[in-house]
UniProtKB/TrEMBL annotation:
Keywords: Hydrolase, Protein phosphatase. SMART domains: LMWPc (SM00226). Pfam families: LMWPc. Residues 1-145 form the Phosphotyrosine protein phosphatase I domain. The keyword Hydrolase applies. The keyword rRNA processing does not apply. Its EC number is 3.1.3.48. This is protein-tyrosine-phosphatase. SUPFAM superfamilies: Phosphotyrosine protein phosphatases I. It comes from Helicobacter gastrofelis. It is an enzyme of class 3 (hydrolase). Belongs to the low molecular weight phosphotyrosine protein phosphatase family.
Length: 148
């Protein structure tokens, strides 16, 4: 089983979801592969947004091995499921002409269908922590649903 986490730039939400999922997968020795991508290629090759790196580190997760990359049809085809962070990401996939049989939203896993807010412009630590909590719970629920 493989999951591709998707957000706008692949430097905040999808990068954080990938890091959280990787941590859980390693600790629980799950047979699962995860990666992340962005709708935009603007940040291609970059590390996660510095406040997101710090946020993940404060939770014991290292994002520095990961680099941003844009979504392509070839990349999408390598994964069983694309997990978007918000409705806009799903619409953008269609606008880019990228199709996939299994596209879902992280907010559909125990979060009442919410969009995960983009923390790129946040400045308050409490706001980053709220996004972390949403992504962490969504990822935990998603992985549990796959291995229940």
């Amino acid at each position: 089983m493989s999951l591709l986490f998707l957000c706008l730039g692949n430097i905040c939400r999808s990068m954080l979801a990938r890091g959280i999922a990787t941590d859980i997968i390693q600790k629980q020795k799950l047979p699962l592969v995860v990666d992340g991508a962005g709708i935009s290629s603007y940040h291609e090759g970059e590390l996660a947004h510095p406040p997101i790196i710090a946020l993940a580190k404060s939770h014991g997760i290292d994002l520095t091995p990961f680099r941003s990359k844009p979504i392509t049809q070839k990349l999408a085809n390598k994964f069983n499921c694309i997990v978007a962070m918000d409705d806009s990401n799903i619409r953008s996939l269609k606008e880019l002409g990228i199709s996939h049989p299994n596209i879902c939203k992280l907010g559909d896993f125990g979060l009442g269908g919410v969009d995960i807010p983009d923390p790129y412009t946040y400045t308050q630590e409490k706001d980053f922590e709220e996004v972390y909590a949403l992504i962490d719970l969504g990822v935990q629920n998603l992985l549990t649903s796959l291995h229940a």
